[in-house]
Amino acid sequence: MWILYAVGSAVFAGVTSILAKCGIKETDSNVATAIRTIVVLIFSWIMVFVAGSQNTIGEIDTKTLLYLILSGLSTGASWLCYFRALQLGDINKVVPVDKSSTVMTILMALLILGEPVGLWKAAGVVGIAAGTYLMIQKKEGTAKEGRKGWFAYAFLSAFFASLTAILGKIGITGVESNLGTAVRTVVVLIMAWLVVFVTGKQNTLRKIPRKEMRFICLSGIATGGSWLCYYRALQEGQASLVVPIDKLSILVTIAFSYIVFHERLTRKAMWGLGLIVAGTLAMLFQ
Fold first, then answer.
1. Which terminus of the chain faces fewer neighbouring Cβ atoms within 10 Å, N or C?
2. In which residue ranges of the chain is pLDDT below 70?
């Protein structure tokens, strides 16, 4: 049964990017992130009460709380960068760069935590890195695609996502995973809205088209659905199997980007996608 939840997590995660892209055509990406975080926060606390871990809030020690806040800030930075990248660039280019957070996490774990990298994991890193490179190459005969700056934001999104994982590994102990996620989401919400007010974008809230508001909220619901499935899959299955399946959400995103936005992959990008999938699956053998 766990494999169905893992696949469900991948599907919801893949759909999230498409819904978010539909919701930021005219709406500022920071404002959209702040709004969708409200929806995600509701979902995260629903998970806490479903798991019955709300009564353990008082048991969180100071060190763990500090790392929860730091990981929340890192998560918020990742989300803000990711949706800005989606606003500026094509989905089928932004998502592969964002998914390279797997590579960054493994390298950070090696350098900071001293975690060993086996043969299959190393092969997976090479495959994902090479595939990402091929997927972000410009189409032949095309001088420029989309607006500039998307790559920097996508790279920072992956970096902060990786940093979140490392912070969690170092200092978040003795707290139930759903509760930890909910606390982090509170930090993300505060951070997202601070960015909105600092940049003076709060005045644009009333100007958000209703259609885009619906897509923004739906993207938040999709994220919540992905989390619910993901953590249920982790409860019933092995993490070493669940995580790679969840990362295959890139296939869902690419498929929907073709259907919704008619974003076509070049032959080189198709090879790149194949390498990313192969590299991700290689992690299963670690």
1. N
2. 138-148, 172, 235, 238-241, 286
| DSSP state letters, 191-234 | HHHHHHHHTTGGGGGGGS-HHHHHHHHHHHHHHHHHHHHHHHHH
Q: What is the C-alpha to C-alpha distance for residues 95 and 203, in angstroms, rounded to an integer?
A: 30
Angle between helix axes 62-88 and 29-51 (nearest 10 degrees) is 140
Task: Give the closest residue to 246 by CA, choosing from 16, 1, 2, 8.
Answer: 8
Give me the helix-helix angle, 29-51 and 210-236, nearest 10°: 40
Predicted model pTM: 0.85
Rounded CA-CA distance 17/23 in Å is 10
Contacts of 111 (CB under 8 A, 6+ apart): none
- Reading the block at residue 128, the tokens are 């994902």
pLDDT digits (tens, 9 = 90+) for 62-105: 888 999 899 999 999 999 999 999 999 889 889 999 888 888 98
Q: And the tokens for 220?
A: 């938040």
Kindly state the DSSP code that residue 139 receives in the 8-state scheme: P
Rg (CA), the chain: 18
Specify whether the CB–CB gap between 147 and 89 falls below 8 A: yes
Residue keyed to tokens 């930090």: 187
Intra-chain end-to-end CA distance of the chain, in Å: 23
Angle between helices 119-135 and 91-99 (to 10 degrees): 160
How far is the C-alpha of 189 from the C-alpha of 5, rounded, in Å? Answer: 27
SS3 138: coil
Asked if 16 and 219 count as a contact pair (C-beta separation under 8 A), the reply is yes
Domain positions in the chain are: 2-285
